[in-house]
Amino acid sequence: MTQPLPAPNARPAPQPLRLKELRPAQVAETLARDPRLIVPVGTCEQHGPHMPLGCDTIIVEHLADDFSAEFGVLRAPTLEYGVNVDTERGFPGNASLRRKTLHRTLNDLIDAWEATGIKEFILLTAHEHDPHLEALATVVTSGARVRVVDILEVDFSDLLEAQSEPMHGDEVDTSLLLYLAPELVAADLAQDYMMSRDELRRYRRGWLRVPKGSPGSIGRPRLASASKGEQIYMRIRGRIRDRIFVAPPPDEP
C-alpha cells in the first residue's frame, strides 16, 4: 500500500535528550538553556507471573523520555535498581539495594552532576515503598534543588474498578504496561491477590513481607486493560507536567 507523503515543511517530533547519547558540548549547550536533569529510578523485582521484573523502570523511562522531549530537559541514564519489599519466598531475578546503598549512590551521582552546572534534579520513581522513597528524599546537594516525584501519588482512583489506590503488579501496573509495552505482559497468567488496608500500609512501610501465598503481585491485575492504562498514564503525565515542569518554583512569582 502506498504511504502518504509527509506534509511540506513538516518538522520531526522532538526527541528526548538522553545524557548517554550526547557529547559534552551538547550537554553544556542544553544546560545553558535549562539547568535541570531528570533522573529515572526504577526497580528490579517481581510484579506477578504475568509481568516483567522491570515494570517500574519501564514506566518511569517512558515518562522521563516524554518530559525530556517536550521540555528540552536533559534525561539521565536510568538507575534500574531500588529498595525492594522483602518476600517470604524467593523470586528468580530479583535484585535489591539497601536503603543506604541507594542513598549513597544517588548522592555520589548528584554530587558529580551538580559540579557540572545542574541546578535542579527531578527524581522520577514508581515504587511506593517507604525505605526506597526515604533514600531519594534524603539526598544532599551543595545548593541544587532536588524534587522527588513518586508518580503513584497522583490520584487516579476514579479510573479503577476494584481498587481505590495502587498496590503492586495490580490493576494499575498491569494496565500501564499493557499500554506502554503490551508485548511484555502475559495477561493470561495474571492472578488476583488482595490485602487488607492495614496489611497494605504495613507492607509499604517495610513492616510486612510479601506473603508466600501471593503470586508476587497484590491487587486485581485481571481487571487491567490497555485503554485503562492509557487513561492512567495521561493522568499521571498531565499532573506531573503541570506541577513540576510548567508551574514556577515556589520562590518565583
Question: What are the main properties of this structure?
Answer:
253 residues, alpha/beta, Rossmann fold, 5-stranded parallel sheet, 7 helices, 5 strands, 9% strand
Describe the structure in your own words.
This protein has 253 residues and is α/β, with parallel strands linked by helices. It has a single domain (35-243), classed as 3-Layer(aba) Sandwich (Rossmann fold). It contains seven helices and five strands; from the N terminus they run βαβαβαβαβααα. It has helices at 24-33, 55-71, 99-114, 130-137, 171-180, 197-205, 226-246; strands at 17-18, 36-41, 74-75, 120-125, 145-150. Strands 1-3-2-4-5 form a five-stranded parallel sheet, sandwiched between helices. α2 links the parallel β2 and β3. α2 (55-71) packs across α5 (171-180). The mean pLDDT is 91.
Mean pLDDT: 91
Identify the strand order in the major beta sheet.
Answer: 1-3-2-4-5
As for the CATH topology, it is Rossmann fold
N-to-C order of helices and strands: EHEHEHEHEHHH
Superfamily at the CATH H level?
A: Creatininase
Category from helices, strands and their pairing: alpha/beta
Topology:
Blueprint: E1 17-18, H1 24-33, E2 36-41, H2 55-71, E3 74-75, H3 99-114, E4 120-125, H4 130-137, E5 145-150, H5 171-180, H6 197-205, H7 226-246
Parallel strand pairs: 1-3, 2-3, 2-4, 4-5
